[in-house]
Amino acid sequence: MNVLHFVNAFFGDGAHWHGYDGIPTxxxxxxxxxxxxxxxxxxxxxxxxxxxxxxxxxxxxxxLLATAARALPSFGLLxxxxxxxxxxxxxxxxxxxxxxxxxxLVTTYESMRSVDPSxxxxxxxxxxxxxxxxxQVELPVALPLILSGLRSGAIQIVSTATIAAYxxxxxxxxxxxxxxxxxxxxxxxxxxxxxAGLALITLVLFWAAARCTVSRGVRRGA
Amino acid sequence: MIRIDTVTKRYPDGTVxxxxxxxxxxxxxxxxxxxxxxxxxxxxxxxxxxxxxPSEGAILLDGADIRKQPVNTLRRSMGYVIxxxxxxxxxxxxxxxxxxPRLLGWSKQKSRARAAELMERxxxxxxxxxxxxxxxxxxQQQRVGVARALAADPPVxxxxxxxxxxxxxxxxxxxxxxxxxxxxxGKTIVFVTHDIDEAVxxxxxxxxxxxxxxxxxxAPPAELLSAPADAFVEDFLGADRGIRRLSxxxxxxxxxxxxxxxxxxxxxxxxxxxxxxxxxxxxxxxxDGRPLGWSAPEDLTAGAVxxxxxxxxxxxxxxGEDSLRAALDCAVLSPTGWAVAVDGAGRAVGVVSQQTxxxxxxxxxxxxxxxxKAGR
Lengths: 222, 376
Ligand SMILES: Nc1ncnc2c1ncn2[C@@H]1O[C@H](COP(=O)(O)OP(=O)(O)OP(=O)(O)O)[C@@H](O)[C@H]1O
Ligand SMILES: [Mg+2]
Hints:
The complex is a heterodimer. Chain A is mostly helical.
C-alpha cells in the first residue's frame, strides 16, 4: 500500500464528497479562514511596510518584531488563545495572522527600500506629493517583491490553518486530526493532499496576479 | 531672473556645501555651474527647487522669495532633469513625459498629445511612445528625461549633469539638441556639469565653484578663457585654454584665396592660369562646386585632372559660421597645410593657409585684449 493508493481510495469514496464532513464543506471552511487571515495580515503588514519603507525609518524595529513573531509557536498561541478567549474563530485567527504578518511586513519594507532612488528624486523634484510618490512611483516597482511576501504569508496560512480543527471549527485539518485519531490513514493522506493542492493553487493564483498587475516595464521582456 | 542671495548650506553633519554664494541667473539663457566634485553644484541647484533648504540667505524668483509659494507649485514650474534620467520604469515613454501635465490636472488625452509633441521636439521617434524605459538606449532615455521636464512648458529648467552618463558622441548630439531647443524655447536653464568643455559650449554665463562651495568666477565663457580670475580657475580650465578660446572667434574675418581652385573639367590653359606660386597644390572642385581634393600642380600639367590621384582635403570649415578653432583644425589636419572653406551648401568658397589663420588668431587676441582693457 502506498500513498497513491490512499489518495485514490480517499477521493474515490463517494461518501467523502457530501455532507457536513464532505470535501466541499471542509475546503470552503479552510479557504474562508485562510482568506480572512490573509486579509487581516495584509491590512497590517502592507501599510506599515509601505510607509516605513518609503520613509526609510523603523527598519531595525520591524526586523526585531518580525523575528520575535516568528519565534512564537502557532500551536502554543492557539492553546493560549483558547484558554483566554475560548473556542471560535478568534483563537485561530491570532496565530495565523501572527505567522503571516512578518513575511508580508518585512518583504514590503525591503522592497520599498530597494526601489531605485533616482526616479523618486525626479518625481519629488517635479512636484509630486509624497503619497503619490509612494503609490505611483515606488509601489509599482516594488510590487513583484511585495507579492512574493504576500505569497509566502499565504502559503504558511494555508498549511497552518489546519489548526482550526483543534478548536472545532472544521477546515481541512479535520481530516488529518480525525484520521490520526481513528488510524484512518486514507483520511490523513487525503486531508494532507487537499492542503498541498490548495497551496499549489495559491502559488498559481499569485503567479497570475503578478502577470496581471506588474507592469511590463518592470517585468522587462517577459 | 533667479537671484541667489548670499546663500549658505550647512548639512546636519556640519559639512558646508555652499558658502555665502550670490549669483544672478539671467532669464532665457543657459547658466552653467561648474567645478570639481563635491564643490556644491548639486546642492546649489537643488536649493532652487527647494529639494534642499538653505541654512542662510534667500533665493528669489522674479523678485519674490521662493518660500512664499507652495513647494509643489514651485517645483511644477521648474523642469528637473537628473543624471540617469530617473525615468519611471513601469510607465511607457509617453506616460513618463506626461507626468507633470497629469499632476497639473490636464486630461489624459491632452497630456499624451503634448507628450507626443515633445518627443518630436527632443528628437525622439514617436514610434517609441509605447515602449518602456528599459527598451531605450541611454541617450534616448536622457532625451525622454528632457522631454518630461519640458512637458508643462515651465519657464525654468534645472539640469544636474544630464549628459554625463552617455558616451562622448551621444553627449555631443544631446548638447547640440539642447542648444537648438533653447533657441526655439528660450528657457531659463541652470545646468550643472563638472566638464569645463561642456560648460564653455553651453553656457551663456558660467559660474566656477571651488571646493567648499565658494564662487571662484562668474563670467561668460569667452571671458573665462581669456581672463581667468585666479590660479584655481586657470588650472580648472586646463592646458589647451588658448586653443579652446578660439571657438569664440569667428572665421568670417579670414582672408580666403580663390585662385588655387580649379573645376574638375577645366582645360589645360585654365589650370595653368590658376597655378600660383605660394600655394603648393590646387583644390579641385566637382561640377557642383563641392571640394573633391588637392592635386599637385605637376599632376595637372597633362591638361586634365586625375581624380583618382587627389589628396584628401579632410573636413572643410563653414566660412563665417564655424570658428577660428574649426578653421585651424582643418588646416592642421590637411596634408597640404591649407584649410578649405565652404558655404552653407558645402560649395568651396576659398582656401586659407595655416599662416593666414595664425595671423588672424594674433589679430583676434589683440582685439580681445583691447576690449578687456576698455571694459575695465
Ligand atoms: N545630504 C547630505 N548630507 C551631508 N553632506 C552632504 C549631503 N549632500 C551633499 N553633501 C556634501 O556636500 C558637499 C557638496 O555636495 P554636492 O552634491 O552639492 O557636490 P557636487 O558639486 O554636486 O559634486 P559632484 O560633482 O560629485 O556631483 C560634498 O562635500 C558632499 O559630501
Ligand atoms: Mg552633483
